[in-house]
Amino acid sequence: MKRRDFIKTSMLGLSGLGLSGLGLSACGGGGMMGSIDLQPSLNTGVFTRPFFTPPEALSSISGITGNKVFDLSMQTGKKQFTGQGTTATMGINGQFLAPTLRMTKGETVDLNVFNALGQETTLHWHGMRVPSNMDGGPHQTISPNSIWKASYPVIQRASTNWYHPHAHGSTGSQVYAGLAGMLIVDDAESLALDLPKTYGTDDFPVIVQDRDMQADGTFRYSLSHMERMQGKKGNTILVNGVLDSVLDVQAKEVRLRLLNGSNSRIYNFALSGSTPFKLIATEQGLLAAPVPLTSITMSPGERAEIVVDLTALQGSSLSLLDLNTGMQLMQLKVNQAATAVTTTPSVLSTTLAPLTAAQSVKTRPFILSMGQGKVYINNKQMAMTRIDEAFTLNAIEILDIQNTSNMDHNFHIHGAYFQILSRNGAAPKAYETGLKDTVYLPANAKVQVIIQFTDHTAAATAPYMYHCHILEHEDAGMMGQLTVA
Ligand code: C2O
Ligand code: CU
Ligand code: CU
């Protein structure tokens, strides 16, 4: 697709898609709200750069505790994304993004996090069920030039998670600069299945992020009032930090671990030619059975593991698309014979025990709203010194989450996972029946989820967070704090 067509598609899309296109409709000509950059996309639809698989992070085993130890350095850098120029970036143990952390259920990990950013930060393990003082939320700040030592047991099932900063008010800018990485948990149940699981061969992280990229190759993260309200959206979409990349793959089943790591853009991912795929896992691990799909919508922070069967496609290419913009994000080039095949089983997990509404002892409302140029949850804005919700350990509750605004939001909670009971009053579609920690709420949507904090208590000195994962909203206060006792 040509640049001009992308803009056109996006503009056309606005009528049907609310504000999820380029985010241009609300202010039209700009004027008082400040101008939106109309730089054309730098995605060309021609795939010239090699796909980048983030390396797995090096670890060592502590001779004293037997814990698995990771050393992480959060640093500034610069990187060239286009044919021209470099841009200032941030990365972990590198210039942009971060190595993939790999953990196994049952082990304890120590993470030594050094802050070389020259500004305060934190490092949050999104999706990990860890003690609240190890969570890396806004209370676990890391001052410049100091080390934060996190340590926790890995108690959860196999899942695709991620890690990113969470400093109150600067999460958006720091993630945008490049501070994000994948965190994959393995367990015996998932390793025993005949799924693609050879990292970098048939099992790939796919971190999708849009950037407002200037013709000179620099990122722009200055926020107009409108961008604060709608979330920062960029003209150019990167996969694992690479523009227009091509992945050479074998003619076999391939597993893509999709992460919407964007600040605010909502994608509807598909493969060219409506190629079918199987959804095998959402945020908190394997589904009971694969769900056949041809597209999947993902809001920021959500993860989805999909398996695409390329067995019959040797010699051809397909691309990963975003149907919301019509853009091609990367290409899969099936140019190698399979060295070993897999056959995704029809049953993935027999250990899921869904909670039912009848078990709930309480229904807790969460109203996502906007007004007077502000964003709210339950009519409040985040205050570091106020606890908003007190949960009881092991109590089963329904969260009644309602977006009363005309704009997209989502809802993420730390310290526990949830299951969707209903979306707009109807039972969830099969692809939303798995365990989740982040859920998309388009304009005026209402979602009920069921949740149980089973793992850790959380004191008022180290509360867990819940928030909209549109990072500009989170930074603007669309977040609250909870305790578990
Ligand atoms: Cu991905 Cu509270 O964050
Ligand atoms: Cu999180
Ligand atoms: Cu929001």
SSE blueprint:
Layout: H1 3-17, E1 49-50, E2 60-61, E3 68-79, E4 87-92, E5 101-104, E6 108-116, E7 124-126, E8 147-153, E9 159-164, H2 171-177, E10 181-186, H3 188-191, E11 203-211, H4 225-230, E12 236-239, E13 245-250, E14 253-260, E15 267-271, E16 277-282, E17 285-293, E18 295-298, E19 303-309, E20 317-322, E21 327-336, E22 362-371, E23 374-377, E24 389-391, E25 396-403, E26 409-413, E27 418-423, E28 438-441, E29 446-452, E30 464-467, H5 471-475, E31 479-484
Parallel strand pairs: 1-13, 3-6, 5-10, 11-14, 13-21, 22-25, 24-31
Antiparallel strand pairs: 2-3, 3-4, 6-8, 7-9, 9-10, 11-12, 14-19, 15-18, 15-20, 16-17, 16-19, 20-21, 22-23, 25-29, 26-28, 26-30, 27-29, 30-31
Residues 124, 126, 412, 414 line the site of one copper (II) ion.
